[in-house]
Specification:
alpha+beta; 90 residues; 3 helices; 5-stranded mixed beta sheet
Length: 90
């Protein structure tokens, strides 16, 4: 199986430039993206969401949650959003 490509939404890119998330981007790029490229479906920090957001997955990153969707036909992982855990599920 080919590796998945990573695509970031504009919303996610804007958040990465804010002070709150800037320090996380290196960690996401170096550690999370390689995992998602290999297998975005399963892993110790990966969970498929339910209900209204059933098309999304979340990656647990300490006190933050990285949300993404998968397009199998195009072999792309779309990084949709990142949020602090305390705010993520409101």
């Amino acid at each position: 199986m080919a590796d998945f490509r990573i695509a970031e939404t504009e919303n996610f890119q804007k958040k990465m430039h804010s002070l709150k998330y800037k320090a996380l981007y290196g960690k996401i790029f170096e550690f999370v993206y390689p995992i998602l490229r290999k297998n975005p479906y399963f892993g110790p920090n990966i969970k498929k969401l339910k209900g209204e957001f059933q098309d999304l997955y979340r990656y647990r990153l300490g006190a933050f949650r990285l949300f993404y969707s998968i397009r199998e036909d195009e072999v792309i992982v779309f990084i949709v959003d990142i949020e602090a855990r305390k705010d993520a599920y409101k």
